[in-house]
Design a protein that fits this description.
With 360 residues, the protein is mostly helical. It is built from 14 helices and no strands. It has two domains: 80 residues, no CATH class; 261 residues, ABC transporter involved in vitamin B12 uptake, BtuC. It is globular. It is a multi-pass membrane protein.
Length: 360
């Protein structure tokens, strides 16, 4: 086995072990705080599969975080940490509702225009902090983080003063026309045709990042920017493209959520899908091909925690504990570093011994 494959295999093992440790710690916490811990754990583990509706909840959550995680994989591929995905989800959902309400289109034109406007605008906005980073060396993480709140408050202004419905007793937009609402795929759930769009996005992003020259150039920049520059790669263009695609995917994720599960836009805060996208991308090792598995797992524990909260005396915030431990262990470079080094040395010695044996 080559060292590259060994490192990939060890990365998978490390991630699985981190998840296992986090789950065990969560179960220990449940044992300490719950009066009926076994019932709570059972609700957590089996709840998402107990009914069609609950399994539908799992898939419903999977759809938007899949888009944001794919966006994170693309943006982080160039070795720069932009966290604009959270604001892009929010603003993408708002723009999709705005276009659907105001355009006068129905059917496929309404849906297509809503998705394209949401994705394109969020893609352009996501390029702003990257441009400032490349041209003026502004901190990308801080810039993208602050831009999330610019998008939030700009969106709230549009909601309150442009598309708010004065006839409802809450802060919400006018009703989204039925012709712009995504159709459901399975009876008894709110799983919409956005699931098909998410699957298509997964395939396209995987092909782009792993099978094309553009993806190779982005990954080359992420691994060694100086080498990429001296190899003739246009650093500026590739970094800007990665930001646009990441923002586009997150914006489409927000549009899919609003047009699929809501009849009005009424988010008053950032929804959290972007932050979960970063978590999912981290678990997936920032590889698009592993995003579906990681997204399903996070959707599973989120749904399980919500069911446990409703059927037992354990709060759903337990999932935050699980996520925190997973990120700490996965991101900790020292976690199992000694074991990894020993395996690499052993692999090198075994590879060196093979030619000697063949000569003998």
């Amino acid at each position: 086995m080559s060292n590259k494959k060994l490192l990939q295999f060890f990365g998978v093992i490390k991630t699985m072990l981190a998840i296992l440790i986090a789950m065990v710690l969560a179960f220990l916490f449940i044992m300490m705080v719950s009066k009926e811990p076994l019932a709570a754990i059972k609700s957590f583990l089996t709840g998402p599969f107990s009914t069609v509706r609950r399994f539908g909840n799992l898939i419903e959550y999977f759809i938007p975080v899949c888009f944001t995680a794919l966006g994170v994989c693309v943006m982080f591929s160039v070795g720069m940490s932009s966290v604009i995905g959270e604001g892009s989800v929010f603003f993408g959902g708002l723009l999709a509702a705005w276009v659907a309400i105001s355009s006068g289109f129905t059917g496929m034109p309404a849906k297509l225009s809503s998705f394209l406007v949401a994705g394109a605008v969020c893609g352009v906005v996501a390029m702003i902090p990257m441009y400032l980073k490349l041209k003026f060396d502004a901190d990308l993480f801080v810039g993208s983080l602050m831009l999330n709140y610019v998008l939030l408050y700009l969106g709230l202004y549009i909601l309150n003063y442009v598309i708010r419905d004065p006839d409802v007793g809450m802060t919400a937009s006018y009703a989204i026309p039925s012709g712009a609402v995504l159709g459901t795929l399975f009876k008894g759930t709110k799983v919409t045709s956005a699931l098909i769009l998410a699957i298509v996005a997964m395939v396209l992003v995987y092909v782009l990042m792993d099978k094309t020259h553009i993806g190779y150039k982005m990954r080359l920049i992420g691994s060694n920017m100086k080498f990429a520059k001296y190899s003739g790669v246009n650093i500026f263009a590739m970094c800007m493209l990665s930001s646009f695609l990441g923002g586009f995917l997150s914006g489409v994720g927000g549009a899919a959520e609003i047009l699929g599960r809501h009849n009005r836009f009424q988010w008053m805060a950032l929804p959290g899908f972007g932050w979960d996208g970063i978590l999912i991308a981290t678990i997936a090792g920032f590889k698009p091909k592993f995003v579906p598995i990681a997204a399903l797992f996070i959707a599973y524990i989120k749904t399980g925690a919500d069911i446990m909260n409703r059927t037992s005396d354990v709060a759903s915030e337990l999932v935050v504990v699980i996520q925190a431990f997973m990120i700490l262990l996965i991101a900790a470079k020292g976690f199992l570093a000694g074991t990894q080094q020993k395996l690499i040395v052993k692999n090198i010695k075994a590879a060196a011994a093979q030619p000697a044996e063949s000569e003998a």
